[in-house]
Design a protein that fits this description.
Layout (H helix, E strand, L loop, with lengths): L20 H14 L13 H10 L7 E5 L5 H8 L3 E6 L2 H10 L6 E5 L18 E5 L7 H11 L6 E7 L14 H6 L4 E9 L2 E12 L3
Parallel strand pairs: 1-2, 1-4, 2-3, 4-5
Antiparallel strand pairs: 5-7, 6-7
Length: 218
Amino acid sequence: MSGLPTLPDALGLSTRVPGDPIEALRKRMWWDHFYSAREPEENLPFTKQELAGIRRHVLGAGMRTAVDIGSGWGVMTTALAREGLRTTGYDWSPVAVERAREFWSGEKRLSFEVHDFLTDTAPRTLTPGSVDVLSCRLVLPYLDVHRFMTDARRWVKPRTGVVYVVVQVWEKQPDGYFRGYPDELIEQLRRGWLHTERWDLDWSPEFTALALTGPTGN
């Protein structure tokens, strides 16, 4: 599909996609260990300000379903459920899913499932035009960006479905940190949608948020 982003070969730090099955296993084990911590830890805590941005740019009248890719501890997933959406969080770490189910066991309209969107086929419940909101918060660099964005366009509802993306901005990251995506590539993500919004998370320009509404197929 034209307009899909292309990762520059020279920017090796822009992706965290495993290079082979052994590296994938190591990464999964690292995340299992991360989610085994006694208390939840977040690389970028979910805040009231971020929720306000989601309410302003992502959520709309009549929305009923949401999917959170890379749900981790389930904080973002639960926030969407509390907004009234029937929400499923997917994570490739069984430990993350177990902990999220434990933390949020009393919540309504909420479920968590184990799934690897890098190597597995899509879950059966993710059918074309089935999702109002698809969240991908700090997860896109772990995925095949071409394949995932193609699938995301198909999964969300035509004209009204929204893909919510949060990603690190390469040019804004301090030395020694994971750099995320260059600004040029982030802007490429906005092509082929009826409407897009982009804003900084809270006060920091190091992380950017996108609301991509209504895939056009172009």
